[in-house]
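Task: complex structure prediction.
Instruction: return structure tokens for all chains below.
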Amino acid sequence: MNGPAMPGRLVAVEGLDGSGKSTQIYLLHRWLQGLGCKVFFSEWNSSELVKGATRRGKKRQLLTPTTFSLVHATDFADRYERQIQPMLQAGYIVLCDRYLFTAYARDAVRGCEAGWLRRLYGFARLPDLTLYFRLPLETALGRILNGRPRLKYFEAGMDLGLTTDIRESFQLFQGLIMQEYERLASEFGFEIVDARSGVHEQQTLVRRLVSSSIDLPEYRSTAPQWA
Amino acid sequence: MGMSTFSGKAPPGIDPDALTGTLIVVEGPDSSGRSTQISRLREWIEQSGYPVAETGLKRSQLVGSDLEKAKQGNVLSPRTLSLFYATDFYDQLENRIVPALRAGFVVLADRYIFTLMARDTVRGADPAWVESLYALALVPHAVYYLVVSPEALLERTLTKHGRLDYWESGMDLGLSRDWVTSYRRYQRRLRSQFKALQKQYGFEAIGANRPVEAIHRELQARIASVLAQRYPIPPVAGGKDVAVAHSGNRRAGAIRPGRRKWRPIPPARG
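Output:
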């Protein structure tokens, strides 16, 4: 598919909940801003659109793996075409806290076919650099569950019917997602960051990986600073 | 006896082989007389002893209302709208069409993926992407496309609604500032997309510049042969009513006469 020219660069972070990826991308964002780069940060969060559909879907038990996947793809397409792609066209470095690999992993666990998912998201450009924050499952679960959170139905993969206990379901679901991530890591050549190491140590590695894959001076803002 | 999907791959949890019903699609532009024909067909098919379920676009409980709202504004990109429609479609496929087909119903679809594909392609979507989006959809047993000349369509639309619809006139495409010109151009483009799809998917064109009754009779004849092929009636001993001995009908017996299990969902409000 021939799209518009996109001189920008795309960096994505992926990993389980609790892997610390959001902290790392935040620090990366601050650093790039400090260097005076044109940088834009985007989160894989749920817009009102997705919230409405998941709320109704959950209440009436309507959401299936396919419609769950499509609702998120709809949301992503909106964010991609209105924010991410224009930023890339305008020559920004775009940082994504979770990208389409989150959908690949999660929807595959729900039984969606890998080929169909790849084609569904075929309109989106793949990242220039994907950082995968790898953490042993037990550690990730401990970080999340020790906070005694109120887990949400879909977040815990309750729709998969693995078990009726929400905490146990979350654990099983995260384990399956991790297996998918590991598969994707080799398929898409993720750069792996050991998320057990110190926060500062990880950030040093992240910055080194970013500066070796992106010619940062190219992305310095040339506009006069007005703010 | 079962069914198949376009790609041979089905949505998780659906076994096309287990579907004993019949899926019949009526396609055609707005004001081509689809809904009139469908209600006539329903009447006739039920009288013939087959249970009927109806489905259409934009009727899903999941996103039907969001979709209606989204169309009011112009905030969504074409791709987002495509995906919204696809979500609506799959929701109905999985929660409405498949259960009915599993129970041996004749499902009458007031438009199917072809309308969605034609609309997306006219708006510049990559046809291969659109095709893969709907690759998990069930292949209907028959698709009838009601063909009405653009001028007749324009007249029917104006007579019926008193005005043209923004989307049905393709106003979002910027073909013309003038609604009627835009309508004509848009409908012509849609029609050529449909012709391409017709070749690809082999659906049957029905000339619809004719009286309702004539169109109905043609559809009736065609559907009767689809049903006869799908449900060959075994010889019945004892001269009992043949319709009752019919396999598709034994299932129908579970549904009490006079009480519709599948009532049409009223159009979603914005």
